[in-house]
């Protein structure tokens, strides 16, 4: 009965129900209207995520998601030859993998809202400080990610979204519009602070609203308590559930 | 494939995905293991919630919840003859309504973990201050709820849980063990602060762990990224998904 909204991504999605997390904020906004399902896989790149597609988005589903956010790239853009090399995916493959995801979702449901989110920017200094906090003098000198390369992946993600006609959020650009984004939005140079989560939430809500999926316009699943006839409550629950908010 | 955990209640549940909300914390804890579905209906008492039972918990479901928390009573215990009178439900009816909920859930699935949560305590002074903040001099002198009466409902909830052999959390008692609970746990004398949410979360986790549903012991839905063979990733996804965490 209730619609599903799926969040498919890496650790930035898996951690989206921490304090002020963008996933939790979505769940709060769509309370009584849609379920937010987290499908976040920390450390995953698009190459590995492709193996999950047919499990998470079966073609024979009678209830495909109303909307799906695809939020990968932070791991694909890890540099070859550095400490996170095993997560690296070449940029052209990243693009093809995203295309496969979009095609799969469109096959599941041609009406599904698909939103591609680019990786956020990277603060190399923040990554280095975090590595030192973990490994001290053993921390490698060179960051495993650079903001420049991640930006190339972000551009590719946007380019692909435009080619395929799906919605997108250029988080890499958006965050860098704010002075001090490095510490304001990223706690370790890569993962989101509560403020960083708020940016993702606001941008996702904006896209959802533009696509006509504003929570305000979706009906409550059952009557608001103030509309229940307390002398004859049964009568308040007899109407079509879809009309419950009228 | 993934198990569901349902949170069924009133506004204390509907608001459980706000900052540090107990629902969001559960979703974070069970990330990649179970979906947390919020079925919170602000303002509802058990009498009205009964009308939702067959919609939310259909007997023919092929995938009943793994666990369900039932968290009502804050509205049932509103006093007759005061401003929230329409939400009042006599204590014996409250008990019978909870019994009907438990029986329904047991019919859905005899193995489902059912956790009854009593209403939290009420801070009458906090309710009064909140009413004044809304209505100024027009605020009624008499609180629409008292801690004493809510305590009777809490005791009835516990009594019923014991009679039916289901798990329970006496939130009314638990919160009052902490000095300053009135403001520490309740922001308007009734609804939960972030600290109040943390208490609910901790108590729910305790019951879940005791029942063998500890998130730590549940398998990941897919391999941890560090276990993926980056030379031959397909091989990491061929094994039974249930064994993915091994």
Helical residue percent band of chain A: 40-55%
Within the largest sheet of chain A, what's the order of strands? 2-1-3-4-5
Largest interface, counted by CB within 8 Å of the partner chain's CB: A-B, 41 and 41 residues
Q: Could you give a short account of the major beta sheet of chain A?
A: 5 strands, parallel
CATH architecture of chain A: 3-Layer(aba) Sandwich
Query: Low-confidence segments of chain A, ≥5 residues, pLDDT <50?
Result: 240-246
Seen as an oligomer or otherwise, the chain set is homodimer
Compute the number of helices of chain A: 11
Number of domains of chain A: 1
**Category from helices, strands and their pairing of chain A:** alpha/beta
**What is the radius of gyration of chain A computed over CA atoms, rounded to a whole number of angstroms?**
20 Å
Q: SSE string of chain A, helix = H, strand = E?
A: EHHEHHEHEHHEHHHH
On the 0 to 100 scale, the average pLDDT of chain A is 93
CATH superfamily of chain A: SGNH hydrolase
Keywords (chains A, B): Hydrolase, Lipid degradation, Lipid metabolism
InterPro entries (chains A, B): GDSL (IPR001087), Iah1-like (IPR045136), SGNH_hydro_sf (IPR036514)
GO molecular function (chains A, B): hydrolase activity, acting on ester bonds
Protein name (chains A, B): SGNH hydrolase-type esterase domain-containing protein
